[in-house]
Amino acid sequence: MTPKMIVILAGVATLTFMSINAAYAQDREFRYATAELSTLSGAERIYSRIQDTANKLCGEEYGGFRLVTHAPERKRCIDEIVRELVTEINHPQLDRVHAASGRRS
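The structure corresponding to this sequence follows.
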């Protein structure tokens, strides 16, 4: 299990999570404005940022985005981080965006 915490202060939420692989385990933060979730376009922006965060973290953990030998592990890593962040934010608008993306849940 990865430790997580959501802190909501004045309409801004911070989600703290630990990256998946123990060798690279470290706390990470994902911040977003809760008001963004009130619209589909806002939820899409947050989802895009979630994907960017997952790509960056998993790229660091698996030697960059172009290392083909680690592509399956990197994809699983990205899918897991995206799923965990979407689950922790737990908002119907974001859930719809995630479902429409076709990523594994």
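The first strand starts at residue 4 and ends at 9.
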